[in-house]
Write a structure and sequence with these properties.
24% of the residues lie in helices and 25% in strands. It has 204 residues and is α+β, with helices and mostly antiparallel strands. The chain has 2 domains: 139 residues, Muramoyl-pentapeptide Carboxypeptidase, domain 2 (2-Layer Sandwich); 48 residues, no CATH class.
Length: 204
């Protein structure tokens, strides 16, 4: 897959800023690959092994960060010169990627991969092992995307002055919140001080 919309939302935002900075630096960059499915990753792994072609990856599914949506590949956006590195193009682009919290494949100790950038935040030691331990599969990881800051509203029962009451509970960032208005009853008065812009809670 090519579109950055297939990447982790955080990496999507980074990719947009990264491309803008490359343009400012006079570097014409095209993102060529983002997320990879199991079939796509294993087909690449087969090249040079059980399928014609040269070896292009050392990772089977799901050991590549591409399978987890936290990496992308790029090239020079000039037809016929896509992988021309005579002017140090890939190192220059890699340096811009590093400024955005990305790890450049040109710095790999083995199997150097200059047209590759990955999101270091989710890849300690340039490995997906932490993701595998925590989430098991890429699909499980994808279900968490964008939900860290999302509000989820459910119902819960509370005992208010000895009386059971059902109220909304807002779940966000691992915390549960109840609206002040839902705490109002015959013994608690909820108001608002408009002059000082703060809520008022009075027990009768």
């Amino acid at each position: 897959m090519r579109g950055i919309e297939h990447l982790h939302p955080e990496l999507q935002d980074i990719a947009i800023k990264f491309l803008a900075d490359c343009k400012k630096a006079g570097l014409s960059v095209l993102i060529t690959e983002t997320m990879r499915s199991k079939a796509e990753q294993n087909a690449l792994y087969a090249k040079g092994r059980t399928a014609p072609g040269n070896i292009v990856t050392k990772c089977k599914y799901p050991l590549s960060p591409h399978c987890w949506g936290v990496a992308f590949d790029f090239c020079r956006n000039i037809k016929g010169r896509e992988y021309d590195d005579s002017d140090g193009f890939f190192k220059k682009v890699g340096a811009i990627g590093k400024k955005h919290g990305l790890f450049w494949g040109g710095d790999f100790k083995s199997f150097v991969d200059k047209p590759h950038l990955e999101y270091a935040k989710y890849l300690p030691n340039n490995s997906v092992k932490t993701l595998i331990v925590k989430y098991g599969t890429p699909s499980n990881f994808i279900t968490t995307w964008g939900k860290e800051d999302q509000e989820v509203i459910t119902k819960t029962r509370i005992k208010l002055n000895g009386i059971l009451k059902t109220v909304d509970v807002i779940q966000k960032d691992g915390n549960n919140f109840i609206k002040l208005q839902d705490l109002r009853d015959g013994k608690i008065e909820i108001g608002y001080d408009s002059a000082n812009k703060l809520p008022i809670i009075n027990a009768k």
